[in-house]
Amino acid sequence: MPIENKKDLSPQDVLTMEEYSKTQPQPPQRKRTLSPIDTSSSALPDPSTSFPNKRSGSGHTPSPTKKPLVFKQPTKHEFTWSELSRLVASKDLKPMGRSEAVQTAYQRAIKRRTKKYGSPDEYIRQRILHWPPAEKNDSEEYPPSDGNESSGSCSSISPPSSPTGPVDPLEVTLKKNEFPYSVKKGIEHWLIWSRHPLTDEVWIRRYLEERLPGRDYLFFINPPELRSVPSIFHVQVFTKGEGEVLDEEDMENKKEEQEAATAAKAEGETIRH
């Protein structure tokens, strides 16, 4: 007979939930056999393992010895001299970049040069700088900057002895950037390429003053995360003005002219005496 009023229940008539559940038929239990967990190092996943992309259905593990090329984001802005000066002084280098058209041309050139020379760095080394092909230890990334990107302080290796005279172009050379950053008309983008990291800001300034007579200039070194040519040391240089930019051949001719003038002066003084 059903109970309609809870007040008619005595304590003996009330079942707890646990007791009630025991009175109900239980579904059969399926026995599962668990495999022992292998905790050995060989059974653990490799942290560097790349898992397949669900969309593409394929995975790729990048080579641990090669880093992907770094490209700055293109910009629609043309930087003025005052803007460049402020960014270099504050070491806020990320906003600088190439125009979209120049960036596209640059990336296409990278692909062509990589296919033919193995890397864009090797193309620059052989075709632009006329250096011999890189040895194994030359292809590694040059030491990172110490944070003073505008000064060029990034290693203990010393630069060539005199920046005011001709410098061996196989050691240090000044070249116009093939794919310059987006800057206002009248501003030029050059690069100092060096076989070894340049450590002395004073040396770099004297080097530029000799080769950019009568011109204004700014220089800085991109930090590692912004370098698209990581294995060859280079200094970014912006310059403007009416003066001519002198290369190493010009510097050699200038030195010969100075030596000839000095010799002529000395000869004239000898004749007078």
TrEMBL record:
<dbReference type="Pfam" id="PF12239">
    <property type="entry name" value="DUF3605"/>
</dbReference>
<feature type="compositionally biased region" description="Polar residues">
    <location>
        <begin position="36"/>
        <end position="64"/>
    </location>
</feature>
<feature type="region of interest" description="Disordered">
    <location>
        <begin position="128"/>
        <end position="169"/>
    </location>
</feature>
<feature type="region of interest" description="Disordered">
    <location>
        <begin position="246"/>
        <end position="273"/>
    </location>
</feature>
<feature type="region of interest" description="Disordered">
    <location>
        <begin position="1"/>
        <end position="104"/>
    </location>
</feature>
<protein>
    <submittedName>
        <fullName>Uncharacterized protein</fullName>
    </submittedName>
</protein>
<feature type="compositionally biased region" description="Low complexity">
    <location>
        <begin position="144"/>
        <end position="159"/>
    </location>
</feature>
<dbReference type="InterPro" id="IPR022036">
    <property type="entry name" value="DUF3605"/>
</dbReference>
<feature type="compositionally biased region" description="Basic and acidic residues">
    <location>
        <begin position="1"/>
        <end position="10"/>
    </location>
</feature>
<dbReference type="GO" id="GO:0006044">
    <property type="term" value="P:N-acetylglucosamine metabolic process"/>
</dbReference>
<dbReference type="GO" id="GO:0005737">
    <property type="term" value="C:cytoplasm"/>
</dbReference>
